[in-house]
Amino acid sequence: MGAWTDMAFILVVVLDLFLLASSRLGAAIRAVALQGALLSLLALLLTSSGHSLGHMLVVAGGAFFIKAILIPWLMFRAIREMAIRREMEPLVGYVPSMILGGVGVVLSFAFSRGLPLPTHEMHPFLVPTALATVWTGLLLVVSRRKAVTQVLGFLVLENGVFVFGLLLTDFMPVMVEAGVLLDLLAAVFVMGIVMFQINREFASLDTDALSSLKD
Amino acid sequence: MILFVILVPLVLGASAFAWPDNRTRPVLLLVGSALHVVGIVSLWTHPEAPVMNGYLFLDAAGKVVVSTSSVLFLASAIYAQGYLRHRSDRDNRVFVGGLLILLAAMTTVGMAQHLGVLWVAIEITTLATAPLIYFNHNAQSLEAAWKYLLVSSLGIALALLGTFFLALSGAGPDGPRSLMLDDLIRAGPQLSRPWVRAAFVFLLVGYGTKMGLAPLHSWKPDAYGEAPGLLGALLAGGITNFAFLSVVRVLQVTSAAGEGAFARDALLGLGLLSMALAAVFMAGQRDFKRMLAYSSVEHMGILAVALGLGGAAVTGAFYHVLNNGLSKGVMFLAAGNIHRAYGSKRTDQVRGAARRLPISGPLFLAGFLAVTGTPPFGPFWSEFMILNGAIGTGRPVVAALFLLFLAVIFIGMGATVLHVVQGSDEGAPGNPGFKDSWLTAGPPLVLMLAVLALGIWLPSGLMGLFSAAARLVTGT
User: Fold this and answer.
1) I need a surface site. Which of B1, B84, B116, B271 has the fewest CB within 10 A?
2) Between chains, do B154 and A198 touch, taking CB under 8 Å as contact?
3) Distance (Å, whole) CA B221 – CA A119
């Protein structure tokens, strides 16, 4: 059981690094979907007797459905309709992004060692994994040009926040968690619509085309 | 009534999406905002106990912000009747529905006593407004909508992480294990202080992005520049005020936990930076709607400075929330009319607005005098209270910088506004079909009179409300 949990956390971090190095959008979407599935698995694996099982089932099920199935499906549809495959020329190259990502992982471990949890430790990898994933998401959003990749970065960031939220499931009301998940879905949906319009307006999804407004 | 003012706009918003007729649909806005005002008035006369297990409650701070937005939304709804008639070529389904959902979400933010609920409602305000920025369906408004959506979403995701940090700070063996505002404040010193500090940083970045504090304001000039005037009014006078309220909530908890000094210093720094940046970018601004965006950055900066100073300045901050909401309504609605009458928002093309629009033109000028803090308008008194607070708490340097930035902004903004309003409009591009009408010029006129009235005579009940709201933050 413990080994499985360790493995899941490590896989989440490996997927972070994979995403930073990946140039093919299809592979990146699959990686984000797999990460979403791992998160819902983690939610179940970390359920101890202290938690109400029903609550965790709802959270894990909701996360799996939204993060691993619905959103990836929407993203695949988007890239198919807009006929794009690759992230060309990122602002920060793949190797530098991976190095930055690796630095982020190290710093996350250092940070979580320096800031002990006030509550009993659920799993030693939890906080570093969450922070590393948030960092990866931020990196992806600011260093990529394609709107699709920026949305993927946003999803990865949200995944990181979700991992951190696992610490708190025993006193977060289901209503709030459901709200968080639905907001995420709605955000991706609205972003998808805007992306579709960008594609139609500029015949590309390069956000570099979006630079006529400045002072 | 608490549920009434949230559910009515929500239901009307949903029915706006189903409403078949483009011409009559804007009436839903009018119905929704009128019922909202009625509900809020009834909450003033008959205060209600918390509902939904204490998740929703209208306290003094919420009351200031919600009431301001209720009035502003009513004015915008009346304006929308005239505006959408001029834009009858456009499908207004998303626009009307989105605005009503925005009203419901804003009201929820104002009443939320649970930081998770607060977060969810703030996120909904972003999602409801992003498509509205794209109302004009052109490349620029698309760019503005994308920036707004992405920057705000990132900010809000970081705010969620901050909220989780805060929850964790109270997860110790004798902690509150809750995100209810009351529980967290009562637990105060028992919260884990390093985590409260980390939480404050993330929450300030997150909700500060929503407020548009420098350097997190990058979405603001684009969104305000491209959005229709009435949406600009609701963004600058409504949503940003609610983001300020969210920061107030966070500060309440942070102060109770004993990290107030750290938090106030951070707010003071960001606030002064925002005012400085607004002063720099205001000068020589060639697009009068973008200029208003920097004015909004400035006013959010003023609010942050006031929170950072603490003491008497916080009362001034809540007074300023009201003044900012109403005077931004005047500016954006008048600017929307001028934009429409000229078909341009560039200052090298627009001149002589006072001649072409005998109501909106002078209103734009009067609104400028009000927002820059000229007596006898309301903002002068609230800014005066904040300045007084700075001197009273022994911060002469802050007071001097505050005055300096206000003066520079007055000069920079004045040059642009006078250029737009004065002179002859001969040779300027035009849209002959558009004139001031009661529906489009009336709402900013009434808001302007309200700003003037607030400066001349402030009812003691309102002053009491501002002090009560400030006591929530300062705890004295």
Assistant:
1) B1
2) no
3) 43
Range of the domain at A186: 2-211
Closest Cα in chain A, distance from residue B142 (Å):
7
* Cβ distance of A198 and B172 shorter than 8 Å: no
Substitution target in A112, A166, A176 with the highest count of B β-carbons within 10 Å is A176
What gap in Å lies between CA B424 and CA B335, rounded to an integer? 18
Rounded to whole angstroms, the Cα distance separating A61 from B469 reads 41
Is residue B161 less than 8 Å (CB to CB) from chain A? Answer: yes
- Residue B403: which residues within 8 A CB-CB, separation 6 or more? B387
Counting the structural domains of chain A, the total is: 1
Alpha-helical regions (H) of B235-358: 240-256, 260-282, 288-309, 312-342, 353-356
Taking the CA of residue A114 and the nearest CA in chain B, the distance in Å comes to 10
Residue of A154, A190, A204, A205 best to disrupt the B interface, most CBs of B under 10 A: A190
Report chain B (476 residues): mean pLDDT per 10 consecutive residues: 94 94 92 96 93 92 96 96 88 94 97 94 93 89 90 93 91 83 90 92 96 92 93 95 97 93 95 95 88 95 95 94 95 94 89 90 95 92 94 92 95 92 83 84 95 92 94 84
Angstrom CA distances, B370 to B36, B376, B382, stand at: 27, 8, 11
Alpha-carbon distances of B396 from B389, B393, B400, rounded to whole Å: 10, 9, 6
State the virtual CA torsion across B166, B172, B177, B178 in degrees, nearest 10. -20
